[in-house]
Amino acid sequence: MAEKRILLIVGGGIAAYKALELTRLLRKAGVGVRPILTQAGAQFVTPLSLSALAEDKVYGDLFSLTDEAEMGHIELSRSADLVVVAPATADLMAKAANGLANDLASTTLLATDKPVLMAPAMNVRMWEHPATRRNLETLKRDGVLFVGPDEGAMACGEYGPGRMAEPAAIFEAVMAALGSGARPLAGKRAIVTAGPTAEPIDPVRLITNRSSGKQGYAIAAALAALGAEVTLVSGPTALPAPAGVKRVDVETAREMLAACESALPADIAVCVAAVADWRPESQGDRKIKKGDGGPPPIALVENPDILATLSKAATRPRLVVGFAAETNDVEAHARAKLAKKGCDWIVANDVSVEGTMGGDENAVAIVTRAGIERWERMAKGEVARRLAQRIAEELQ
Q1: For residues 369 and 361, what is the distance between their CA atoms, to the nearest angstrom?
Q2: Which entry of 156, 260, 271, 343 is annotated as an active-site residue?
């Protein structure tokens, strides 16, 4: 990725601050970033902060005497491998869809011959407006790629679709777009499990865990970017399905196992989900009420072991990868898990490190029978990309 370069157009919206973190992630991965900051975008982030993170000049003036002396907007539009618009406001999407060019950002979008990836960000009413929907469809027909938007609370106080995707998700989409020419996993089928499981105690309460699903979703996206046909078996999360991935939603461990077995045969299985080890022996059909006798006893029974089951299946995938989320003696526990489960690799991480469980970064160790390979802390999207590449190399 050291030879890859993107042109980052930062539109005007409260989500513009996320462009700074996106820039940091891209530079950490070795991708060159050349920013264009719109006049509206400069109301939310400063040219100095964007320039410092990008380690490059920030462009913004279509009529710059120095930049435009050599037709700078043309040079900018052709100098990158990918043009990323984040945030892509309703205004920028409308200009791009209708061929308008009255500032540096819109002129560059009209002049580029490179792929374009947009991360929309706007109020839910603006996103759902018929004009925006028409522009979205036009841009998709023109070949523009999209990541997001997500659904959630907005700065304006409303709730719904329109939130810009998180920097880690945009980073993953960028890496997938930059690597779209190489598809070493074309023709291969992969199963990825992600997120938590939820084991009901009664109609109201359940046993679950803190898994966000971010790492598993990133791995599913990275495998799909390399050409694999991916089935993502997901516990409850708030994440959108990655592009080109078939998602199967489940809640309990038993449902997750059944979905995985239905997706067989496969060439690859990557078990990232944080599956509950136990579940209540019985589920109450009514809410358990608080009484005078103290908390009711809850008898637990062991859940099925999805990783071990796939590792020993009659139609076993060629490569079975498990994850070990540990809080102590991480590598020792991972080696023991590798021997016990019968899988090929264990990806171990220390979830006691702040920002790992539910965060956007991870530090992992790849444990195999041949030894241990330790990776430095990096964005979960980069962990996913590297792991997918390792998987592709293993299956060659």
Answers
A1: 26
A2: 156
pTM score: 0.63
Task: With a cut of 70, say whether residue 65 has pLDDT above it.
Answer: no
pLDDT at 345 > cutoff 80? yes
Determine the average pLDDT of the residues in 319-347: 91
Token duo for residue 358: 């539910």
Q: What is the CA radius of gyration of the chain?
A: 23
Query: What pLDDT shows up at residue 69?
Result: 46
Measuring CA to CA, how many Å separate 242 from each of 39, 128, 245, 272, 394?
32, 21, 6, 15, 24
Cβ-based neighbours of 217, under 8 Å, separated by 6 or more:
194, 232, 234, 237, 239, 241, 242
Highest mean pLDDT among 78-87, 88-97, 158-167, 286-295: 88-97
Tokens of 230: 């991916």
Q: Is 260 a catalytic residue?
A: no
Name the residue with tokens 């309703």. Answer: 90
How far apart CA 105 and CA 97 sit, in angstroms, is 13
Domains and CATH numbers, the chain: 5-178 (3.40.50.1950), 189-395 (3.40.50.10300)
pLDDT score of 182: 62
What residue type is 206 in one-letter code? L
pLDDT for 72:
57
- Burial of 282 per CB tally in 10 Å (0-12, 13-18, 19+): exposed
The residue-averaged pLDDT of 243-272 equals 94
Instruction: Return the structure tokens found at 273.
Output: 């989900």
Query: What's the pLDDT tens digit per position in 116-174?
Result: 999 999 988 899 999 999 999 999 888 888 888 887 777 777 777 888 888 888 888 88
CA dihedral 42, 47, 50, 55 (to 10 degrees): 160
Name the region of 143 (left: φ>0; alpha: ψ -120 to 50; beta: rest). left
